[in-house]
Amino acid sequence: MKYISGYQALHLKSSLKTSGLISDFHYFGHSDRISVRWDELNLQESENSIFGDYGIEKNHHVPKHEGEYFVANHCRVLLDFLADSNSLNNILGARYYIIDNDEYNEELFSKVVELKAFPHWEMVNKFMGLEYGLDWLNFLMLKGIQWPNSVWGRGSDGEGLPSDSFREYLRVLACDFVLSMNLCDLELYLSKIIEKEAELTPGTYKDIRYFLSESVLDHIDYYLLTQPLNNKRKLIKALTGVCRLVGLIYKTQVTDEKWRIYL
Q1: In the predicted model, is pLDDT for residue 53 greater than 90?
Q2: How far is the C-alpha of 260 from the C-alpha of 231, rounded, in Å?
Q3: Which value, in Å, is the radius of gyration of the alpha carbons in the chain?
Q4: Residue 50 — very low, low, confident or very high, per pLDDT cuts 50/70/90?
């Protein structure tokens, strides 16, 4: 089946409750702007894809062309990009700028892992981790699929990274903690947030709130009681400070009093 994919499909409406790029005509991975050209359609053949006819919709009208066409919905477009090892950098920010709806996470993740046998699977795995953070990591753990080594490696200190890359760096540190459950990894994560507070973006604040509320705060007492750490007072002060910074101190009822035995 011939169908339209790529940026053209992202600028067409989808039956899904996703954003696409319908009202956003920039190349969101870079600063230079582009316009979509409709003179020559980006047609692909579904029979040549591991995903077959999944996510392809019919009866779409296309600018400058008569008749109706088969068009990839926005999730299928993302999958098509992921299947091409040369296209991963072209879809940075896909979670928020293309899909923008976590309702489809489980279904999307289940299709992404079909690429596991592809030579560039590790690149796909890392990309999904940087985009979806703990949601992707938890999915991998349930499926028994290994998370690749950190993109920058544990030796990286995250210095000199632009704000968008620093956000990705923090996501890697968060994933490291979830895998190890080691307070030293949590301490590193918190210290980097404090060091770079002035450079945090709204999206990074959102990531931090999600990580702390989902993977840290409910179990921190257990970690503190069962793990050795040279300076637990420093860790707790950093944790309460970051909670206040991102607005979690009120929502989770976290207070210094809760951990007074360490202070």
Answers
A1: yes
A2: 14
A3: 21
A4: very high
Question: DSSP class of residue 54?
Answer: T
CB 119 within 8 A of CB 125: no
Length of the chain: 263
Q: What is the distance between the alpha carbons of residues 17 and 149, in angstroms, rounded to a whole number?
A: 33
Q: What is the pLDDT of residues 148-205, one digit of tens each?
A: 654 444 445 556 665 667 887 888 888 778 777 788 889 999 999 999 898 898 888 9
pLDDT beyond 60 at 94: yes
- Out of 7-11, 178-182, 251-255, pick the least confident: 251-255
Closest listed residue to residue 154, CA positions, set 173, 130, 167, 131: 173
Compute the CA torsion angle 17, 18, 23, 28 (nearest 10 deg). Answer: 170
Written as one string, the DSSP assignment of 180-246 is: H--HHHHHHHHHHHHHTGGG--HHHHHHHHHHHHHHTTTTHHHHHHHS--TTHHHHHHHHHHHHHHT
Q: Is the pTM of this model over 0.85?
A: no
* The 65-72 sheet, strands edge to edge: 43-45, 2-4, 65-72, 56-62
Contact 81, 22 (CB under 8 A): no
DSSP class per residue in 70-129: EEE-HHHHHHHHHHSTTSGGGGTTHIIIII--GGGHHHHHHHHGGGGGSTTHHHHHHHHH
- 37: phi then psi, degrees, rounded to nearest 5: -100, 130
DSSP state, 247? T
Question: CA-CA distances (angstroms) from residue 256 to 74, 211, 237?
Answer: 45, 20, 8
Per-residue pLDDT for 245 more than 60?
yes
